[in-house]
Amino acid sequence: MNATQTLTPLPDDLIPLIKACEKLQCHPGTVQRWIAKGKLPGYRRLGRWFVSEADCAALFRKWRQKPACKPHETPEARRNHEAAEKILRERFGFKI
Questions:
Q1: Which tens digit of pLDDT belongs to each residue from 12-46?
Q2: Ordered DSSP codes for 34-96
Q3: CATH number, domain containing residue 55
Q4: Cα distance between residue 85 and residue 65, in whole Å
Q5: Structural contact between residues 26 and 59, judged by C-beta atoms closer than 8 angstroms
Q6: In a domain, 19, yes or no
Q7: Would residue 38 be called left, alpha or beta, if left means φ above 0 and alpha means ψ between -120 and 50 degrees?
Q8: Separation of alpha carbons 84 and 61, rounded Å
Q9: How many domains does the chain fold into?
Q10: DSSP state of 17
Q11: How far is residue 43's CA from residue 49's CA, in Å, rounded to a whole number?
């Protein structure tokens, strides 16, 4: 590092990759792919990956904005939408 470069401060809410997987209900390989593709900022420290809890919540909200199907198409779609809202409330404390 030369004299003009500075280190970027780390977010205060870093959680281990495995904890992020639990919150997002996905496989660790999925989160690693998102980090590699730049969809989720990741931080590698002491050989382990960490992500910001706020970034996880933002990614989850982004998913919610793009439903896989229209809510009025099937009862299953409505259940999926309600399940996503429940996860946002319980895991991330969002009020919907």
A1: 889 999 999 888 888 899 899 999 999 899 999 88
A2: HHHHTSS-EEEETTEEEEEHHHHHHHHHHHHHS-SS-TTT-HHHHHHHHHHHHHHHHHH----
A3: 1.10.1660
A4: 11
A5: no
A6: yes
A7: left
A8: 9
A9: 1
A10: H
A11: 6
Q: Token match 């590698």: residue?
A: 44
* Structural domain containing residue 46: 14-92
For 32-41, what is each residue's pLDDT tens digit? 999 999 989 9
Tokens of 6: 């500075």
Q: How far apart are CA 14 and CA 50, in angstroms?
A: 6
In a domain, 8, yes or no: no
Predicted structure pTM score: 0.57
Contacts of 91 (CB under 8 A, 6+ apart): 23
